[in-house]
Amino acid sequence: MTRRTGDTEVAITQVEDEFNSTSAKVIDEQIVCPECGGDTVASADSPETICSACGLVITEDEIDRGPEWRGFNAKERNQKSRVGAPTTALMHDKGLSTNIGWQNKDAYGQSVSAEKRRKLKRLRTWNERIRTQDSKDRNLKHALGEIDRMSSALGIHETTRETASMIYRRALDADLLPGRSIEGVATAVLYAASRIDGVARSIDELASVSRVPALEIKRTYRYIIRELDLQIPPTNPIEYIGRFASAIECNDETERRARALTQQATEKGVHSGKHPVGIAASALYAAGQLCNDRLTQSEISNAADVSEVTIRNRYREILEAAEEVTSP
User: Fold this and answer.
1) What residue ranges in the chain does DSSP mark as E strands?
2) Which of 43, 215, 247, 280 could form an S-S bond across to 237 if both were Cys, CB 3.0 to 4.6 Å?
3) Which residues pair with 117 in a beta bridge?
4) Please, what is the average pLDDT of the chain?
């Protein structure tokens, strides 16, 4: 650095002296106790800085950047230590394995040579074989892939997918799969999970995206819930109202009236022994008649995938139940 003469040189010298003295004070405050002059220690269990000699608390309420758990010995710290993404039941190995990327590029984004591409392809093949070492892992991987595919097609959220994955793992551990297709069991557990989580999806909707017919899904579903002793709550028809109303683009007043009619019909027991989809579709048609909303049986039938005869039969029962509830 080039030094200037005169007043400029004196000013630079003063600034440097002030900077050095300030830095020295900061360093002294970090390592020296103001009471006894002893060394300060940052506590590992609390956000405090204390003196190792006299125990004076110098600073407190600092940001604790350590983990949220405590370990009292090396073994506990090693067991509780964790890195990477959390485990998930949506993958057969719970996301604990490492995948080799499909892109043939190096760390700088440059394409690799032909020889390295052959090596990467071979590594990917062996990595896939190692991830699924036995038939159980291959079965689980295929089934979870089917659950994810059908859930994506039907718009089922991740929570229900995880529930279906856990039910399938229980069925696999209980040896319930021999004699049944993987696709059929995967579809059955997804339907059971949607019933448990209150997601309105019918068997016909699942059959439209599944690779097995609806009859096999029903048989497998009854077998799974019986063997695993699953407590499946009854489906409430009101869960279908919002989706059907969006499909036919009816107004808000009609949708609110349909929900009220469905609630009244449920209180009178009209839904007992009847398909909930038919009850919801009939309630929408009845609400459209009461609210002067021009809804036809044909468009509601197409949206709900039920016959027009069912709508004509059920909507009269729903209106009768509503009159009985509202009448004194």
Assistant:
1) 40-42, 49-51, 57-59
2) 280
3) none
4) 82
Instruction: Give the C-alpha separation, 62 to 100, whole Å.
Output: 41
Distance between CA atoms of residues 249 and 247, nearest Å: 6
Token pair for 281? 């579709």
Q: Is 299 exposed, middle or buried (0-12, 13-18, 19+ CB in 10 A)?
A: middle
The CA distance from 198 to 239, in Å, is: 8
Contact between 306 and 280 (Cβ < 8 Å): no
Are the CB atoms for 184 and 197 separated by under 8 Å? Answer: no
- 184: its two tokens: 């059929």
Residues in the chain: 328
Residue 214 has pLDDT above 80, yes or no: yes
Report whether pLDDT(327) > 60: no
User: Taking the model in full, what pTM does it have?
Assistant: 0.65
* C-alpha to C-alpha distance for 164 and 161, rounded to whole angstroms: 5
Interatomic CA distance for residues 283 and 255, integer angstroms: 9
Helix (H) or strand (E) holding 225: helix 214-227
Q: Is 279 left (phi over 0), alpha (psi -120 to 50) or beta?
A: alpha
CA distances from 296 to 1, 186, 256, 300 (A): 88, 36, 18, 7
Encoding tokens for residue 277?
Answer: 């989809």
| Dist CA 321 CA 323 (whole Å) | 5
pLDDT tens for 52-102 read 788 778 777 777 667 778 888 888 888 887 776 777 888 877 877 777 878
**Residue 25 reports pLDDT greater than 60:** no
